[in-house]
Amino acid sequence: MNEEIMIDCGEVILREYRMEDVQALYEITSQPEVYEFIPGAQATLEQRVNWMENYEIPANEKFKSSMPNLKDAGFLNLGIILRETGEFIGFCNTGIKEELPEPNREIGYAISKHYRDKGFSTLAAKGLVGFLFENTALETMNAVALISNTSSIKVLQKCGFKRAGEIEIDGESFFHYTIRKKDWA
Fold first, then answer.
1. What is the assigned CATH class of domain 6-183?
2. Residue closest to 110 by CA, chosen among 69, 54, 149
3. Which of 26, 45, 65, 126 has its CA 20 to 30 A from that of 181?
4. Distance between CA atoms of 67 and 153, rounded to whole angstroms?
5. Could you report the per-residue pLDDT of 70-123, keeping only the tens digit for each?
6. Tens digit of pLDDT for each residue in 95-104?
7. Where are the domains of the chain?
8. Degrees, nearest 5: CA angle 140-29-71
9. Percentages helix, strand, coil for the chain, rounded to the nearest 5?
10. Are 36 and 151 in contact (CB under 8 A)?
């Protein structure tokens, strides 16, 4: 699969990161509403450029080349694009979460404070889970949400994830959620 991954989610589209997304991604991850719930999200613009160029975009290529079995696949990094304007309003990704028991592929997402409470995170998360279940050999997906992150918990529940327990990561308490392909509607 060499063409760009693009997932139609209705009002938003998920597509692979592009270098032109760096500024918007930097601005979103600099919002306290984002970095308070995603440890390590805050970075300088220079770090973001470096990560985008040397890690995130190459990771997308590696992910695509590993489909459908995802052997040795790392992260798939997708921008949440507002269909109406083409604006980069958030991100949705999947990767291996070492702290989780096998199978430990998880999804994560964040949306700009300017686009919260409009259902866009739910559309994006459902779109990515559907894409993964339909196009890869994955049978189970995971997600974690800080216990205090009620918005993310609601998104996961709307997507059909079921709480599997609690887990501590780097001294913080998270709810651990899973969804199985056979339960995906």
1. alpha beta
2. 149
3. 65
4. 29
5. 888 889 999 999 999 999 999 999 999 999 988 899 999 999 999 999 999 999
6. 999 999 888 9
7. 6-183
8. 30
9. 35, 30, 35
10. no
